[in-house]
Amino acid sequence: MLVFIDRTNIFVKAGNGGNGCIAFARQKHRRGGPDGGDGGKGGSIFLEVDKGLRTLSDLRYHPHYRAKNGAHGKGKKKSGKKGGDLIIRVPPGTVVRNRKNRELIADLVNPGQKILIAKEGKGGKGNASLASSLDPAPHFAKEGQAGEEKELELELKLIADVGLVGYPNSGKSTLLAFLTRARPKIASYPFTTLSPNLGVVSSKEREFVLADIPGIIEGAHKGKGLGHDFLRHIERTRLLIHIVDLTGYGKNLSLLNFRTINEELRAHDPLLFERPQIVAANKIDLLEARKNFPRFQKEVEGQGYKVFPISALTGEGTEELKETVAEELQKLRKRETENRGIGETEKGSRKINEN
After folding, report:
1. Which CATH architecture has domain 7-156?
2. What is the CATH code of the structural domain delimited by 162-340?
3. Would you say residue 231 has pLDDT above 90?
4. Per-residue pLDDT for 225 more than 70?
């Protein structure tokens, strides 16, 4: 079974450059001029996004990476061979930071995206390259330079269009399983979901990716429960589905849970709280939930949210929810495209004015 790992540290060391060579040409009756070759460059290390990867588990269990050193120069002005480059593959959504100062190095999102993470050491000059009018036959050469070495912190933020949020055991995983082909673990106890799950939803509009994260509880932003560790996986989403178990409304639990989740989102990241949100009032197939729905709907719609009564178990109401989410995503994508266009126009205007 593949273990989901979304944070790890690795050490990378680019190859050292080879040393330059001290040598002189051999001639029949006298010693010839300098002919020591240059050292070869070391190998560099790159990070490349592989769309087939979903976790950082390979890097967790193999945290040290060293590229090959360059070969030393030889006589007859032969340069040393370059050390082979090393490519480390990471999943889409990998954030790379310098472990020592936590400076952001890269946010790797697109499949095939590739960055240089540790640069090779240059090869040292052989005495043939160091000859000059002042010293036509140098008896020295230069050592190769050391390759860069870094300690990196890698953090995975899943890439999904829509994030599912809610209290533990509210029905998020059941809804994910119903709408997609994903098969998350489902059971009637809290924290059944121990790692994020992704699924692809097909709608009339287009497909979209749905992410289910472990349930959030009060105090999650302080480290309680499991939600805090995984809230970052919905930071890239365009829209949230907030799923609420209606069967607890008799004690005002449904509304209280709804408010608590939103406060946790705000505490983690105010921008996450401001993300468009659609509310799925779950377990409408149960009598208690049907009785509680009108009051819950009035309260939540009064706060400006769209509310859909659904049963993640039977599928009741999920088609309307799915199509509404797809339509909202289309609107959001269109708005993003328009905003990018305005931004590019403003940049162009500034350049014209500057000229």
Report:
1. Distorted Sandwich (2.70)
2. 3.40.50.300
3. no
4. no
